[in-house]
Specification:
- The chain has 207 residues and is an alpha/beta fold.
- It has a domain at 8-37 and 99-204: Rossmann fold, CATH 3.40.50.300.
- It contains 8 helices and 9 strands.
- Strands 2-7-1-8-9 form a 5-stranded parallel beta sheet, sandwiched between helices. It has a 4-stranded mixed beta sheet with strand order 4-3-6-5.
- α1 (19-29) packs across α7 (172-183) and α5 packs antiparallel against α6.
- The radius of gyration is 17 Å and the shape is globular.
Length: 207
């Protein structure tokens, strides 16, 4: 990867699709990849670490950063604010390091407008039924929140066609390999220009 100019890879997914696990596995395979840590006003979960999973900040601090133009993108998700620090990403790219952003589709749209050369990737669950199973298995949300996440997931998934690639996270290792191929510049099987991929993705939302 070092022979090519540094690239920005933007990865989005509906809640529960396995995005975070895939991104961490990818970064484990490629120590040269830089993982941009997002800011959020969401409450920190017991298994999360400050400065590793997110920068957990107050709504006031988040809004101040945004007003100063220090956010490359920002979005409201489940009543919480999320955003990517602009300076961190730009510094990595200037130094020749590839960068991975793990954000939602709203943020991905903003990054695409700000940095049109970025590579965008959407992670999909193999089915809505499997997505529900994964959300319930996490045991981090109430039944009411899970139902809301499922409703929002259907909306999120309708934006897959805005991305350069779609990876269906059915079997974890296969999904990591597909993501690895995109990073390496060999992503035709998951390209949204690929008719076979488009047919597979369209079938996921069908009853």
């Amino acid at each position: 990867m070092s022979a090519r100019p540094a690239s920005l890879f933007v990865i989005a997914a509906p809640s529960g699709a396995g995005k975070t696990s895939l991104v961490h596995a990818l970064v484990g395979r490629h120590p040269d990849l830089r993982f941009s840590i997002s800011y959020t006003t969401r409450r920190q979960r017991p298994n999360e670490k400050e400065g590793v999973d997110y920068f957990f900040v107050s709504r006031e601090k988040f809004e101040a950063l945004k007003c100063r133009g220090e956010m490359l993108e920002s979005a409201t998700v489940f009543d919480n604010l999320y955003g990517t620090g602009r300076s961190q990403v730009e510094e990595y790219l200037r130094s020749g390091q590839n960068v991975v952003l793990e954000i939602d589709w709203q943020g991905a749209r903003q990054v695409r407008e700000a940095m049109p050369d970025c590579v965008t990737i959407f992670i999909m669950p193999p089915s809505l039924g499997e997505l529900e199973r994964r959300l319930r298995e996490r045991r981090t949300d109430s039944g009411e929140v899970i139902e809301r996440r499922l409703r929002d997931a259907v909306s999120d998934m309708s934006h897959w066609d805005e991305f350069d690639h779609v990876i269906i996270n059915d079997e974890f290792e296969a999904a990591v390999a597909a993501l690895d191929a995109v990073i390496g510049g060999h992503g035709w099987p998951t390209s949204t220009d690929n008719p076979a991929l488009r047919e597979s993705v369209a079938a996921i939302g069908r009853p």
